[in-house]
Amino acid sequence: MVEKTKGVVSKLPVNQILSAIIEDGLELNASFIHLEPINNLIRIKYRVDGSLINGPEISKKRLNSLSDKIKNLANIQTGYIDLISGGKFKYSHKDQEFSIRIYIMPTIDGEKITLRVQSNMPVVTTLKELGFWGNGLDVINQAINLNSGLILVTGPSDSGKSKTIASLLESIIDHSISIATLEDPVEYKISRATQTQINHRTNLSFKNGIKILLKQDNDIIMLSELANSESIVEALDIVGHKKLVVSSLNVESSVEAITKLLDYGISPSSLAYGLRIVINQRLVRRLCPNCKQYITPDKTSLHKINQLFDLDNATSMKYVHSQEVEYYQSISTDEKHNHKSLSTSENKLKKIWINNPSGCSDCHHTGFMGRIAVVEILKNSPEIERLIMTKSKDILINRQAVKEGMINYLVDGLIKVLIGETTIDEIISLTKSNYLT
């Protein structure tokens, strides 16, 4: 149970109960707040860094009054408890304004209410702070400074694609470049770009917006997502006008982005010559820098790691060690002072980092603070172009990309375990598959 609502009881006024629930969520930096009616109780849960944290339990007798209060704030008609409904309202906390979206679903125990919390001015961080490093970061910086082509940021839902795109555009140094966006919705304020929100009521669609942006002589156009074949064709048409396009695609891997675009009927030649890079990413919980710990891995930990990365194999172990060394070579001297020693040698895994089970006050006793991206970056090349042109299988494109230097996102995750950014359990939770071939 979180601190502010420990003393919340059903006798308190509904305004105070709701305020305490929301403010606890804001203090925890929760992305969602769940009010779940189960039997005779309302169970409050907070989604923090991708995981649920249990909050207080409130008598279900207050469900209808809480629901009515939330509906009034969101301009949703009250009096109906058997309808799906949604809306939003604004909430101020510590001089910061938040947009809270409401999703209500009738259940056999009453209305389940979910609040999605979004800052109206979310912070755009640097690519390095998000988790990009070394050669991968160099590849991105080279691609974003090209005159034309397609840059894709991919991954499943809630993998941080929008934030990466915003950070990527903010990283552009050349202020003579004109950047425009078409988004649905606008999630981050990008200081370097003129941003447009899609509005179907006024006929401001992607298709109509693109026509105007091309006439306005923009150098870089960002489309928030390629959701269908029409939007993909339009994106590659922009590339044909010698523009750089940055967009996102909901797929599981970098290579799958290529095969999905081909499955949509995109010409292999258009894709082969237009594609520049594909970034694929996931988010994992970041270790609290104030209370994280390192240990010598025991047999259980070694078994988990070896199952996924085959570190008993001398070649695999040497490869992982080389990547850890490369990471340290890519960071500044000041950053190196924060790391006592390497976690690997050429033939041994010496230590891994874990969360402190008790945590500390800074991380609300979870051992984690925020999230970090684990990524893979596929760079197009003459050989990959040839594989695209012949519609080669995923595994062949993946092998060629790895041969040319792509680090699989699971390996990137392992490196982040070794340098103390996350835990091996976080990486294992991403997938049970091994794409290291």
- How many DSSP-defined strands? 17
Global structural class: alpha/beta
Beta-strand share of residues: 25-35%
Continuous helix count: 16
Question: How do the strands and helices of this protein lay out in sequence?
Answer:
Elements: H1 14-27, E1 32-38, E2 41-48, E3 51-59, H2 63-73, E4 85-93, E5 96-107, E6 110-119, H3 127-130, H4 134-144, E7 149-154, H5 161-170, E8 179-183, E9 193-197, H6 206-215, E10 220-223, H7 229-240, E11 244-249, H8 254-263, H9 268-274, E12 275-287, E13 293-295, H10 299-309, H11 314-330, H12 333-336, E14 344-345, E15 348-349, E16 352-354, E17 368-379, H13 382-389, H14 394-403, H15 409-418, H16 424-428
Helix pairs in contact: 1-2, 8-14, 9-13, 11-15, 13-14
Kindly describe this structure.
The chain has 437 residues and is of the alpha/beta class. Helix content is 35%, strand content 27%. Among the domains are: 3-119, 2-Layer Sandwich (Beta-Lactamase); 127-280 and 375-405, P-loop containing nucleotide triphosphate hydrolases (Rossmann fold, 3-Layer(aba) Sandwich). It has helices at 14-27, 63-73, 127-130, 134-144, 161-170, 206-215, 229-240, 254-263, 268-274, 299-309, 314-330, 333-336, 382-389, 394-403, 409-418, 424-428, and strands spanning 32-38, 41-48, 51-59, 85-93, 96-107, 110-119, 149-154, 179-183, 193-197, 220-223, 244-249, 275-287, 293-295, 344-345, 348-349, 352-354, 368-379. α1 packs across α2, α8 packs across α14 (394-403) and α11 (314-330) packs across α15. The longest helix is centred in the last third of the chain and has 17 residues, at 314-330. It is globular. The protein starts with 13 loop residues before the first helix and ends in a 9-residue tail after the last helix.
